[in-house]
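Need tokens for this chain, all 196 residues.
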Amino acid sequence: MLAIVDSGGANIGSVRFALERLGVRSELTADPAVIRSADRVILPGVGAANEGMRKLQERGLVDCVRGLTQPVLGVCLGMQLLFESSEEGPTETLGLIPGVVALLPDSPGIQVPHMGWNTVLCGRNPELLDGIAPDARFYFVHSNAGPVNPFTVASCDHGTPFAAIVQRNNFSGVQFHPERSGEAGARLLKNFLTLT
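Here are the structure tokens for all 196 residues:
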């Protein structure tokens, strides 16, 4: 069973529909017992880090998510919440991946938020990208991003390099929206479903 953490994000519906297209049953839940017993967990999210953390705290899910041992995938804000903190607020986040999420810098010809299709550059060979062409494009919508550091397995550039895919132990995160990234996004979700 795959649990989608009910964090109140606007992308929850599209994540569920993407999984349904793959023939995968998921359960949207804020019940810690259900989340802990799931085979896999997706932490979605859209918006600001302080609001995302507030919702997790209100639902009593902060320690639950921190303690998960099965494969977990953070999507967009869900990925940002995996880091130690965010400059939005500033806000202490889940602390599962070292680093601070920061606002993408303004620069000539670069618009923030980063909105649209972009490619990612692999630093390692992450299982999440198995079978996906190196020039595949993914759909991004964000103003803040995590740093490129040893836990970055793929990066992207929008005026400055940022973490597009991170991984530490059983926790993975993608800054883009796989549920809105066509065939490449569907393949990434399939790959997540086979992680051990």
